[in-house]
C-alpha cells in the first residue's frame, strides 16, 4: 500500500496492536491475551478444587497475581491508546476488563472471601473478546442470522413451553404432593421443565399411577415439541444459505477486517476503508 | 380518522377497552390484566411453599382477595359490555373467568381446602387470554399451521411410539420383574416411555444383562425416531414458509388487528375494517 | 354399482365382513375386534398389578375367558372364510391369532405360570392388525417411505453409534472401574449408549475427573450426532413430499381400498378392481 | 474378461485376496477377518465380566491365543504381499494391526496386567477396517460430506456450548456449593454439560430454589440449541443430495471398487481401471 502517511505515532501503533488482528503484532497480542484468559479460567477452576488448592495454594496465588498484573497493564494500555478513553471505560468490555483486575487488589484490603472468587469468575466473560478473532466469522454470522430471523418464533415456542410447564407442574403438585418430592408448585414446575426438555434428573419422580400417566404425557409432548425449534432453525438456516450463496458467496467474510476506529471504537470496517464509517476519523492504514 | 360517528355510547367504549388492544386505554387494560393474572399465578405458587405460607399467610390471603375482586369486576364488565352476554358466559373463556373468581367466595362458606387451591390454579388458563395480545401473531400462526398440517403424521408417529412402549414395556416386565422396580406392566410401559423419549429418570433402571441389552435397543430406537416428528414439522414448516413468502410477505401480520365485534365477538378483523365480517355490525372505529 | 353377480354366498359375505373395512358390517366387525384387543391388553396389564389382581382375580379370569372365546370364534371364522386356509394359518397374523387364544386353554391343563401370561402378552401384536383400518394410510405410507429411503444411511449411522459406544465403553471401564458401577465392559458399553442417546439414567455415573471429562465428550458427541438421523429423515421426507404433491396429489390414498382377495389374501387392490392383481380371482364387489 | 496377463504370481494373488473384496477369495478373507475381529471384541468383553472369567478362564486364554495367532499370520501376510512393506507397517492400520497381536506375546514375559487388557481393547479399532467393505459406501460418503461441509459451523456451535457451560457451571458452583454435589467448578461445568445436552444423570442436582431456576434456564437453552446442529446438518445434507441426484445418480457407488494398488496401496480405483491412478503400477485384474 502506497499511502501518504509519513510516520505513525506510538498511540496509533499501540491501537493497531491491541484492537486489531490483521498485523503480526496484533495477532501476537491476541494470542498472548487468549492464553492469559484461558489460564485465568483454569486457575479459578483449580482453586475451587479443595485438594488441589491445599497443595498448590501459593502457586495459585502467585499465578493469580501474574495474570492480574497482565490484565492491569492491558487495561491501562487500552485506555491510553484510544482517543476517547471514557467511552471504552464505560463500555461493556471496559467494565469487564476492570472487573477482571480488581478482585486481587481488593483481596489485599479485605480478607479473601468467596465473593471475590466469584468476581474473578467474571473473567470468563472476557472469552467473548476472543470471538472477535473469529476465523469462522462467516459461519457464526450465518448461525447468528438464522437465530435472529427465528427469534420471534422461538419466543412463542418458549412461551408455550413455559405455560405448559406451569399448568402441568401445578397439576402434578396436587396429584403427587410431598411424598414424591413435589414439595411446592415452583418445585413441580421445575420438575416439569426437567421432564419436558427430556433432561430427567430423577431426583424427583412421580410414584402414583396417575402421576406417572401424566408424566408420560408430558414426556411424549416434550419429545414431540422438540421438533418445533429444530424445524424453525432448520428452515431459517436453509433460507439464509439459499439467499446468500448465489448472489455473492461469502461476501461478509471478505469485506470486513478487524480494525477498530481509534476515535470512536466502531468496529466492522470494510477492508479497504480509510476513514471510519461512524465518525469520519482516519483509520490506521496497515503497513 | 374523520369517521362520521357522532358519539360513542359507554358500552361501546367499554367493549373497546376490554376486548381490544389497539387503543391506549385497551392496551392499558390488557397490561393491568396481564399483571393481575401473573400475580395470581405467583401467589398460588408462593402459597404452596410451606415456609413462605407460614410467615406471610395473612398477606397472601389479602392479595388473593384483591385479585379475586379485580377478576370479579372484570367478569361483570365483560358481561355488560357485550350485546349477547350469554354467548360470553358459556364460552370457554367465560367459564374460565368465572372459575377464576369463585374459589375465594366458596372459601367463605367452606373451610379452605386443597380442592379450592386447585380450582384457583385454573386461573393459569387465563394466560391464554394474553396470547391474544400476541405481538407475534404471525409467528404463532405459522407455527400453528405447521403443526395442524402435520397433525395426521404426528398422530401416526405417537401411535407407533405407544405400541412400541406397550410391547417393550411388557417384555421388560417379564425380563426384569420386581427387583429392578418393574413392579407391573403399566409401570414397565411408563419406564419404556421415559426411556424412549430419552428422559431417563433413573428411578427404575434395568439390572439384568438381557434387560440392559433391550434397554439399549429401546434407547437407540428412541434416539432414531425423534428424527421423525422433527423431519415432519421441519418439512411442513418449510412448505408453509415457501407458499407464504413470495406471494405477500408477512401479510398475516399486517392485515389483522385486535378488534372484537361488540355484537358477535368475532375476532381477526382486517386493519381498516368498519363492519364485522361475520355479522355486519359496526365496529368501534379507533380514535 | 350394477354388477352382474346374482347372489353372494355366505362365505364371500363372511370374507367381506372379516377382511375388509369398506362396508358397514366390516366396519362394525373391525370396531368390535379393536375393542376386544384393547380390552385384552388392559386385562393383561391389570393382572400384572398385584393389588388389583388380588381383589378382582375372578373377574379377570372371567374376562380372560370371554376374550379368549371371542378370539377363538374369530380365528375359526377367518379360517373358514378364506379359500386357502393353510396360507392364512401359517401367515404371520395367523400364528399371532392362534397364539392369542391358546394360553387360556393351556392353563386348563397346566397350572397358570408366568410363561402363559407372557404368551398372552403376544396379543399386543394383534394391534398391528388394526393399523389396517388406517384412516391415516396416506400419512403412514409417507412416513414409511421416508424411513425406507433413508434405511441405508440410518444403518450406517447406527453402526457408527455402536462402534463409538464400544470404544468409549471400553475406555470408561478402564478409567472408572467398579467403584462407580462400571463393573464390566458390557455394562460400560450399556452406560455409553445410555449417555450417547442423552437418556442418562444416572444409576451408573462417572466419579473420577478424567471419567467425567470423557463423559462430557460423549454427551456433546451424542448431542451433536442426533442431528444426523434428523437431517436424513428430514431431507428424505421433504423429497418424498416434493415428488408426490405436484404429480398426483394424495393418489396413494385415493386408489387403494381395504379389500382382501378371498383366494390368495393379497391386499391393496385398486378401488374399482374386479379381479385380484395377484392371482386373478374374482374379488367381492361391494354392494 | 479376456485380459492378456498370462500368469499371476503368488504375491499378486495374495494381495488381491487380502486387500480387495471383489473376488470370491477376497470376500471370504474379509468375512473370516470380520468374524475374528468381532470374536476378539466379544472375548475382551467377556473377560471383563468377573463371574464369566472365573468359570471359563482357560477357554478365554485359549481363544485369545487362537485370535492372536490368526492376527499374527494376517499381519505377516499383509507385509509380504505389498511391495513397500514399510509404508504399510508405519501406516495407521499397520500400527493397529501390530498392537492387536503383541499383548498376548507380552503377557508371556510379564504377568498379565490390566494395561495389557486395555491394549487388547485396541483391537476394536480394527473394526474400522471392515467399514472398507462398506456395501453402503455411497450412503456413508454422503453423511461424511455433510458433516465435513458443516464442520466450521459445528465447531462454532460446540465452542458456544462450551462457553455457556463454563459460565453457568461457575455460577452454579457459587449458588449451590458442596451440599448439592457441586464440589468444584470443574464438577459444576461437568454438571452443566450433562444438563445442557439433556442427558441429566441426576447424581448431581440443584436443591436451592435459585439453583433450580438457573437449571431450568440451562435446560430450556439446551432444548432450544439442539435445533442448531440439526438445522445445520439437515441443510448441508439436503444441499449435498440436491447437487448429487440430478447430475449422476449414485455414481460414487457405481464407479469405485475395493482394489488396492499392490505398489503404493492407493485405494478407490475406478471399476475398470487397469493401472493405479497414483503410481501407474499395474493393478490386479479380476478373473
Q: H/E element string of chain A?
A: HHHHHHHHHHHHH
CATH class categorisation of the largest domain in chain A: Mainly Alpha
Strand composition percent of chain A: under 5%
Provide mean pLDDT of chain A, rounded.
74
The best one-word shape of chain A is flat
Helicity level of chain A: 55-70%
Assembly type of the chains comes to: homotetramer
CATH superfamily of the largest domain in chain A: Voltage-gated potassium channels. Chain C
Most extensive chain interface and residues per partner: A-B, 45 and 53 residues
Under the CATH scheme, the architecture of the largest domain in chain A is Up-down Bundle
Q: Helical element count of chain A?
A: 13
> What structural class do the secondary elements of chain A suggest?
mainly alpha
Q: Biggest sheet of chain A, in brief?
A: none
By DSSP, the count of extended strands of chain A is 0
Distance between the termini of chain A: 7 Å
